[in-house]
Amino acid sequence: MTALDPTTFASMDPAEFAATVKKLSDKEINEIMGGEHRQSILDAIFDRFPVLFNPEKAQGADARVNWRITGGPGGSDDTYAVVVKDGTCTVEKSPTAEPKTSIMLGPAEFAKLITGTGNPTMMVMMGKVKARGDLSAAMAFQNWFDTPKG
User: Fold this and answer.
1) pLDDT digit string (tens) for 87-120?
2) Is this structure's pTM higher than 0.85?
3) Are 41 and 7 in contact, with CB atoms under 8 Å apart?
4) Helices 26-33 and 38-52, packing angle to 10 deg
5) Which residues form the SCP2 domain (predicted)?
């Protein structure tokens, strides 16, 4: 495992998180995100979506994107919904409503995708990211947020 203290992930600002993800191997990310700090890291990441949301970039958007992150302790997974509607962004943990788009991926792919350090097209082509539903919403989604890149 990396010498990085995983408890710091949840408190990192987005730019620092992106730079850290870029330095870690997939194995290191999967180990960290498969351990005891997974929930605090995921909660911190998803809590930032509304903060980084840019309503001007998402004018007219109406999308519910479910993110299912696999690779949790004991083979568990976690699902969050990011809902963009009427110029607002909200997040739901363990959503029950039907999404417009659903994305399933492992911890390393998730971290790389949200920080812009991975190639989404290649991840889909290699089967590391699975998307269902309105794929145009999934492609537009990344442009609705002011996220620093690693």
Assistant:
1) 999 999 999 999 999 999 999 999 999 888 888 8
2) yes
3) no
4) 100
5) 56-146
